[in-house]
Structure formats: structure tokens, C-alpha cells
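Input chain follows. Return C-alpha cells only.
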Amino acid sequence: MSQATNYLENKIAEHVFGGSAYTAPSTLYVALFTSAPSDTGSGTEVSGGSYTRMAMAFTVSSDTASNTSNVEFPKATASWGTVTHFAIYDASSSGNMLCYGTLTASKAVASGDTLRFNAGELDITVA
């Protein structure tokens, strides 16, 4: 299950009802969190230990977008803590959080671990 942020909801409303066109980002990035993000874009994103957001492409079928290929984060060089959530951003750093969700299973990432999403494992549903 995923949730759109206030930022994305406002962009959609402006695009559909306000006459201000929204240009979709050319690249989307998945971020990992150790505490729940919110509609306002808060939460605790993983940092340090070679962590970086990863570019991710999606395909859309009906009301669900799924990642089109495997996405592997760099090998952790220090503990990232327990990853519980993800978010999709429009930039590799800073930028705007577009949507977020809870992972099906939390993952404790220790030094030397590699976190990976296989193709089709990350689903974003518009409801």
C-alpha cells in the first residue's frame, strides 16, 4: 500500500483543476526509511554507510505502478538500522517526496548487507 504526499496531491489537483501543468520527473528515485514517512514528507531516511537513493523505472497497469527491473542498493559499509518504509522522490538528493509506503517485511541492514528490490516487488497503488 502506498500513499501520495501533500506535494503530489497538490500538483495533481493543480494539473487537473487549476490549469497549471505538472511535468513528471524524468527519473524517479527510491529512498529507504527507518521510521514512517508522512504526507508532509517527514520520516527518517537512511544515511551514511554508503547509502544512496537509487533510480527506479516503473510500468503502470491499471491503478498500480511496479518497478520494471531489479534495483540493488550499494553494499552497506555501516549499519543502516532496520528499514521499514520506502519513498519515491523526484531527485537523487533533496527533491520532493512523491509517495511512500511500508515494506511488507522490515529488514535490519548490517555492515556488508545488500538490500535489493526484484522486478515487480515494489508496487505503488493509486487509490
